[in-house]
Amino acid sequence: MRIRLIAGAMALVCLAATFKIVSLGSHLRLTATIPALLGLAFLAFAIGPSAWTKRITAVMQTLHRAIARADWEPPRMLVVALAVCGIALGLWGLQFAWQVPTNPDETDQGAYLATASQIQADGGLFALMRRLYSGEFHEANRHPFYLGLLSLSPTQTWGKILSTIAVIIAIAGTAAILSCRSSLLASVLFLIWCSVNPALLKSATMIGCEAWLMVWIAISWWILDIRPPADGAANGDHRRTLGRTLGAGLSLGLGWLTKGTALPLLPLTACWLGFREFNTTRRALFGLIATLVFGCGWLASAHPLLIRNVRAFHSPFHNVNSWLLFVDAFEDPVELSQNRRLGDLAQDYVRSHTIGELVGREANGLVWESFILLRLLGAGPSNLSRAISGTLVLLLALLGASLSGRCATQLVLIWTIMLVPLFAWYIPIAADDRFLVPFAPIWIAYAAEGAARLLSAWFMSRAVHASPKKVGQD
């Protein structure tokens, strides 16, 4: 029954997306066939005879077990060749991405350069740190980490170099983690897909903070993707786990110091840390201690901005973009924050809209954000081709997540399920890949694991079918 309900919910989402896409114009009808076909498939599964459901479920479970048992090891030369191919494709794609002229008016690249130039004129990076503690730095839209780095040389070239370095760190580090915790095949497949992903290539050459947020999110995932010690483990194991938790807090604190959208990761990760091991009193106590250590790490790296916000704006998490959550179209967030209190604006917005209008905004946003997610994961010359290939990547990511058996998989699902609706609400203000792109390496990593498992199962099945023939020939 639970599977039918999930399938029914997915069918409603897909069919709603179909009608929304069709309503935007006849030129998008071809695009609408993707969610339409998926919706019909989910609907057939949800309302079909019980025999269908049992048969399909049994087949899926059998396939899942077969894929999970696959442990084919590819030849070392094949792995090396694929790795070289991925690196070569990545360098080739970066070369073309760097040749695309930078438009300072696109997104807020020009604003980053202007603010960084002002920071340099006011004394540079060390003066920025002093002004954060004193509350004299009043930039309340863009957070200071990337601005500080950019102020070292506020030019388009330096800004793009910073983003390229960050994306390379995130991709190379995630590939190394996959090679250790999953397989070499998954690692090289991850490299190849990242090297042809347009969203990652664009992020690597943009003047913006998203690439560095990608680094901090990836590092926190690397650190937290290790199981906590068992009840009988030595004290050294517990100390190492708490040290890793502290490191994850430091990393996500730097993430918030980089971009305001990293703030929801704090309570989501803290809750996951506190409740993931709640089966015994001792485990619950350790989870509470780990949560406190994580919070201390977050405070240690994020405190300069917290102090600035309290001193300058009397609110620890002040960001003018919060005001844009309660308007129907883009307005100047600085002017809006100066004229209205956030609480009053939120109350007026809820009072002036019906429940249907509020639900409609979120539903329309979810349709668009889902399309953006698929486009983000995919590759191709057009938005449609990227969305189609992105659908395949998402399915592989779900397969990889179900097979990985790693503890942080649940955390990634929590991040995704909670943040996608939040960004969907923001769609009337801004719709772009840059809100989701910091999570792209993690999702692609799970897709690479799923693809590697599928390839392993396929090669093993071929070997099994080929062995009787060889015996017969002998």
The total of beta strands comes to 0
Given as residue ranges, the uncertain stretches (5+ residues, pLDDT < 50) are 470-474
Helix and strand composition category: mainly alpha
Number of domains: 1
* Beta content: under 5%
Helical content stands at over 70%
SSE run = HHHHHHHHHHHHHHHHHHHH
Mean pLDDT: 86
Oligomer: single chain
Largest sheet: none
Brief summary of the model shown:
The protein has 474 residues and is mostly helical. It has 20 helices and no strands.
Overview of the molecule:
By secondary structure, the protein is mainly alpha-helical. It has one domain. Helix content is 75%, strand content 0%. It contains 20 helices and no strands. Helix 6 crosses helix 14 and helix 13 packs antiparallel against helix 19. The longest helix has 34 residues. The protein starts with a helix and ends with a helix.
Element layout with pairings:
Elements: H1 2-23, H2 29-47, H3 50-69, H4 76-99, H5 109-121, H6 125-134, H7 144-150, H8 156-181, H9 184-195, H10 198-203, H11 210-224, H12 235-258, H13 265-275, H14 281-313, H15 333-339, H16 342-351, H17 355-377, H18 383-404, H19 409-425, H20 440-473
Helix pairs in contact: 1-2, 3-20, 4-9, 5-7, 6-14, 8-9, 8-11, 8-20, 9-20, 11-12, 12-14, 13-14, 13-19, 17-18, 17-19, 18-20
